[in-house]
Design a protein that fits this description.
Layout (H helix, E strand, L loop, with lengths): L4 E5 L3 H13 L3 E5 L2 H8 L6 E5 L7 H11 L4 E6 L4 H10 L3 E4 L4 H27 L6 H10 L6 H16 L1 E9 L6 E9 L9 E3 H8 L9 E4 L8 E9 L2 E11 L7 H31 L10 H18 L3 E9 L15 H13 L5 E4 L5 E5 L4 H16 L9 E9 L6 H16 L2 H4 L9 H9 L3 E4 L1 H16 L5 E6 L1 H14 L7 E6 L11 E4 L10 E6 L4 E4 L8 E7 L2 H15 L6
Parallel strand pairs: 1-2, 1-3, 3-4, 4-5, 17-18, 18-19
Antiparallel strand pairs: 6-7, 6-11, 7-8, 9-10, 10-11, 12-14, 12-15, 13-14, 16-22, 17-20, 20-21, 21-22
Length: 609
């Protein structure tokens, strides 16, 4: 007896024979036809478990065939076969109801895995019917399967994670639930994707590695369908039910349920219902992840690997939703490169702008796997940097600058301008973030660093600070101390905002700065304070890193703050000759970012994403 009946539709004889041969060897009963019209005619009188159809065919194409099949047979499973250049159309086919897609050329393993996945989903549906018919022991089984079937109506990974968690809490009467999901199939990192009920989101891990999470929270979960284990020590409660979310045999997520409404422990019936619901959820999650991968492929340039602007905007709006839900920060950035006359673009096909390809490759090489690189309409590059504040965006900016400046062998490197903005300190919607980003891009073009590019070529900062004083103004000498106190007090008033403050009070302002630090001591401060001062440290302050010996002349008063919120820098006179002194002040973000990271490099201070 065959495993299943399959109808293959392809206008090319080679592919019909290939599919028939591969699946016949695996024990399937395969029938082939050469056109969509012929397929519809056969489907009027015969039943097939799966229809496999090519996307591009003479006459009626695959998308239309899927639509007509689903009109006549809503439960008919259809697999789309497409070439790489057709993936955008394949996305439309998935929206019409295709269960899966396979890219040409395909092999036996890929084809069989796709069919087995669909048949597994079919078996789950059949099991639902059988359980309802036999009126099995679990009360509410019919409604469980009805809710589980609703999971397949969503192809959004984020929305599906929330719906899955909602169903698990309902089935087990859990008051609290959290779910972590991988960004893509095969990824070890799981991201916080949903929280429900009595959950303090800020106490939950934003990102976890699968193996580490299992070892710490629920040993044995990889080999089990569920595990009862204690909640992490920093969370209230005694027992939690952990469930793996598996897609195509891989664990792509972990759900944690706790706090049953009746205060009882989770029993065997709870676990059985949750495990069954997770089976459906795993299949639905696999569909959503495959669909997302297909959608990304269709909206990604094959040469530069950059995403389209429309996909970038959708991704940012989705990140806004997640950030609001879980209290995250994220940043977006814009990269402009002038006078790029890069290498010969080795391996880039004729007709492709090899300079753009090379620039995109260098930028992508400096990013993390979770970052998203897109092409703007005006030749600039756009970046989405998840879970990244302004200081973290600055770290990634420096990596990109280094990548774009490398390998010029005596030739003049291109001019690179990178500006960024951060949610929520700079805006809470895509439109407001874009407005701030546009303003910063304009400001970077008129920055003192752009007007005086030789500033970036100084080998040490001390002579650079001297040059910056040329742009200062004459101020009462006490202004220096007032500015230092104000900036210190300001960053302590904003403990949720992360940044770095380099502070050199000089000999005349050190007592005042130490007094201010003592007065504003706070258990929580988002900024790291780097204090350049000679002499003994008067007392230990966990908010302050002391640098008592450096190449910089610590007698000169200066400060540089860069991070969330407004950036600011001040440079004072080395010696005091009168009641007034030269003071340079600026909120030039591009210049301040440069100074902050040059100070970190010169002082050996490592700034992290």
């Amino acid at each position: 007896m065959s495993k299943a009946r399959i109808l293959a539709v392809d206008d090319q004889r080679y592919f019909r024979e290939l599919i028939e041969g591969l699946l016949d060897d695996e024990g399937y009963d395969v029938q082939t036809v050469s056109s969509a019209d012929e397929a519809l005619h056969i489907l009027e009188r015969e039943d097939f478990d799966i229809v496999i159809t090519d996307l591009v065919m003479p006459g009626m194409e695959g998308v239309e065939l899927v639509r007509r099949i689903r009109e006549r047979r809503p439960d008919q499973q259809v697999v789309m076969v497409t070439g790489v250049i057709d993936v955008k159309t394949a996305v439309d086919a998935m929206k019409q109801g295709a269960a899966d897609y396979i890219l040409k050329p395909f092999d036996r393993v890929e084809l069989v895995e796709s069919i087995e996945k669909i048949l597994q989903q079919r078996r789950l549906s059949d099991e639902h019917a059988r359980l309802v018919e036999e009126n099995l022991e679990y009360m509410g089984v019919p409604s469980l399967f009805e809710r589980a079937r609703e999971l397949f109506s969503s192809l959004s990974v984020g929305a599906l994670a929330e719906r899955l968690l909602e169903g698990l809490c309902f089935e087990t009467r859990a008051q609290s639930g959290v779910v972590w999901i991988a960004e893509d199939l095969g990824r070890e990192n799981l991201e916080l994707a949903g929280a429900r009920g009595l959950v303090w989101v800020e106490q939950e891990a934003e990102s976890i590695r699968l193996a580490e999470a299992v070892a710490a929270w629920c040993p044995g979960l990889q080999q089990s369908r569920s595990v009862l284990a204690a909640l992490p020590a920093d969370l209230e409660g005694n027992e939690a039910l952990y469930l793996p979310i598996r897609a195509a045999g891989r664990t792509v997520g972990i759900a944690r349920l706790s706090g049953r409404i009746d205060s009882e422990d989770f029993d065997e019936a709870d676990r059985a219902r949750a495990e069954k619901f997770c089976e459906f959820g795993g299949v639905a999650m696999h569909n959503a992840m495959r669909f997302r991968a297909l959608e990304r492929r269709s909206l990604r340039d094959p040469e530069t690997r950059t995403y389209s602007r429309s996909y970038f905007d959708d991704a940012v709006r989705n990140e806004v939703h997640k950030a609001n839900r879980f209290g995250h920060r994220f940043s977006i950035a814009r990269v402009e490169i002038d006078d790029w006359t890069g290498p010969d673009g080795g391996g880039v096909p004729a007709g492709i702008d090899h300079e753009v390809v090379e620039a995109a490759r260098r930028i992508e090489g400096a990013l993390r796997a979770t970052d998203l690189l897109a092409a703007g309409e005006d030749g600039a590059f756009l970046l989405l940097l998840p879970l990244t504040d302004a200081l973290g965006a600055g770290v990634l900016t420096q990596r990109m600058r280094m990548a774009l400046a490398a390998g010029w062998e005596g030739r003049e490197a291109p001019t690179v301008r990178i500006s960024s903005t951060t949610f929520p300190v700079d805006g809470s919607q895509l439109e407001s973030l874009e407005q701030v980003l546009e303003a910063r891009v304009d400001a970077s073009r008129s920055s003192l660093l752009a007007q005086r590019p030789e500033f970036a070529r100084f080998q040490a900062l001390d002579p650079l600070l001297d040059c910056m004083l040329e742009f200062g103004s004459s101020e009462p000498v006490e202004v220096e101390g007032q500015i230092m106190r104000f900036v210190l007090e300001d960053i302590v008033r904003r403990p949720a905002e992360r940044g770095v403050l380099f502070l050199s009070p000089g000999v005349r302002w050190l007592p005042d700065v130490l007094e201010a630090l003592d007065e504003i001591r706070s258990p929580v401060c988002g900024a790291e304070i780097i204090l350049l001062a000679e002499g003994e440290v008067r007392e230990t302050n966990p908010q302050v890193t002391w640098v008592t010996k450096s190449a910089l002349d610590s007698r000169r008063p200066f400060l540089v703050y860069f991070g969330d919120g407004p950036a600011y820098a001040m440079v004072g006179q080395l010696t005091l000759a009168a009641a007034r002194t030269a003071v340079f002040q600026t909120s030039d973000r591009a210049l301040i970012e440069f100074l902050a990271f040059e100070l970190g490099r010169e002082l050996g201070i490592v700034l992290s994403v």
